[in-house]
Amino acid sequence: MKPINVGLIGIGTVGGGTFTVLKRNAEEIMRRAGRPIRIVVVADKNLELAQQVTAGACRVTDDAFAVVNDPEVEIVVELIGGTGVAKDLMLKAIRNGKHVVTANKALLAKYGNEIFQEAQKMRVMVAFEAAVAGGIPIIKAVREGLAANRIEWIAGIINGTTNFILSEMRDKGLSFDTVLKEAQRLGYAEADPTFDIEGVDAAHKITILSALAFGIPMQFDKAYVEGISKLDAADIRYAEQLGYRIKLLGITKRTPEGIELRVHPSLIPARRLIANVEGAMNAVVVQSDAVGSTLYYGKGAGAEPTASAVIADLVDVTRMATADPQNRVPHLAFQPNQLSDLKVLPMDEVVTSYYLRLRVQDKPGVLADITRILADEQISIDAVIQKEPGEGEEQADLIMLTHQTREKRINAAIAKIEKLGVVAGKVTKLRVEELGK
Ligand code: HSE
Question: What is the spatial distance between Cα 274 and Cα 284, in angstroms, rounded to a whole number?
């Protein structure tokens, strides 16, 4: 049987894993794909590393453009990441009529519309299972497995680095900086760890899921993004006392007014399965009308887990390479001429519940002043805890949970509360996601 020829760009962690798993499971993969999948050329800036990993099994080069221009290559696997040269390489590969498999979430979230349009024109596939939640087949689930459903919302722990940091801070009482160093040592973090801790990586991924779920274009520039770098360990403790865990969630939701697309630390009821996803693991909940809630859990990063997704795409592309493009699964789940123009809501219009922490004078009337401000903004209070002031202190922590309200209302209330003379410093605001039906 004639093999399908692959050119691999980037032989780092994921590229190395892809090479290893393709070799180890070659027989099994061939039985699934119907043809052997053969890497014919590997490009990497580090030629020595490429030679070492491939051990003479294929050609190696330090010129990635040689791979996308190589007439022998039918599928290009792009694993260098970033939105610079990777974009040029991908567009060149597509224009040369090659199918592409990629793990590049940043590139798809920012330039996916252009890339898929070009792929459509050139009648080639761009497969990207590895771009979201590593080894979890969430793209396939949302795009194909749930095709009967009207998807209502998706909420996911889709960044392993931040989940690892939050888990360690909670379990071991360690500081943010200590745990970040450990995450980098373990190889979970992006080349630029600010992408992880500031929520950008998760925003890339939820942008992609949002497009697939609702049949809308990629709109990364409209996503609200807030990371965990300013999260205080005190809030992790108080959340726990209230029966919640704090997780960095990527959320996208269909509402009558538009689509919510946001990443931020969120309090989730501790009894939810997803609240118990610890360490660098990823998990995604999808709420749909027919099947209800489904949960997908697994490793979101690492050499072989991500290679698992890359190779699944290679198998899909191999199976469908000879099919008429009209009969393939559409890149973004919906037929390209059926994309909706539902707008992404500005964060001010999002409706959710809130956790507030205030440092207040411990004297009569303080709570009354605060609750009056909330009532004026039509915000209903769900729970209040006042902590005893420490020995010799006159100020106490006041923690409040609100019922659902619009973000702009809570912001208006907070601005007024911060002006009260009895409130010290800034109010800490976190969002609460019940993740029920
Ligand atoms: N840096 C990402 C994470 C891994 O921490 O989950 C790949 O997307």
Answer: 8
Taking 80 as the threshold, does the pLDDT of residue 212 lie above it? yes
Domain boundaries, the chain: 4-134+303-332, 138-298, 350-432
- Tokens 């090479």 locate to 19
Predicted confidence at residue 48, as pLDDT, reads 97
Q: What superfamily would CATH give domain 4-134+303-332?
A: NAD(P)-binding Rossmann-like Domain (3.40.50.720)
Q: What is the DSSP letter of 286?
A: E
Using the mean position of ligand 1's atoms as its centre, give its distance from the Cα of residue 312 in Å: 19
| Residue 285: alpha-carbon gap to chain centroid | 12
pLDDT tens column, 235-269: 999 999 999 999 999 999 999 999 999 999 999 99
Q: Reduce the DSSP state of residue 208 to 3 states and report it.
A: helix
d(CA 173, CA 171): 6
Task: Give the nearest ligand 1 atom to 103 CA.
Answer: 8
The answer, yes or no, to whether residue 31 has pLDDT greater than 90, is: yes
| pLDDT averaged over every residue in the chain | 95
Is residue 34 scored above 90 in pLDDT? yes
Euclidean distance between the first and the last CA atom of the chain, given in angstroms as a whole number: 49
| Torsional sign, CA 43, 47, 49, 54 | positive
For ligand 1, atom 7: residue with the closest CA? 301
At a CB cut-off of 8 Å and minimum separation 6, what does 194 contact? Answer: 200
Q: Is the pLDDT of residue 314 over 80?
A: yes
Q: What average pLDDT does range 319-330 have in this prediction?
A: 91
Atom of ligand 1 nearest to the CA of 306: 7
How many CB atoms neighbour CB 211 within 10 A?
Answer: 28
Phi/psi at 37 (5° precision): -105, 115
| pLDDT, tens digit, 9 for 90 and up, residues 182-200 | 888 887 777 778 999 999 9
So what's the pLDDT on residue 389? 79
Catalytic residue list contains 205: yes
pLDDT above 80 for 272 = yes
Residue type, 33: A
Q: Which two tokens stand for residue 279?
A: 């360490």
| Catalytic residue chosen out of the listed positions 87, 110, 205, 247 | 205
**CATH no. of 350-432:** 3.30.70.260
132 lines ligand 1 (CB under 6 A): no
Measured from the Cβ of residue 14, the count of other Cβ atoms closer than 10 Å reads 26
CATH of region 138-298: 3.30.360.10
Residue 362 has pLDDT above 90, yes or no: no
Q: For ligand 1, say whether the CB of 313 is within 6 Å of any of its atoms.
A: no
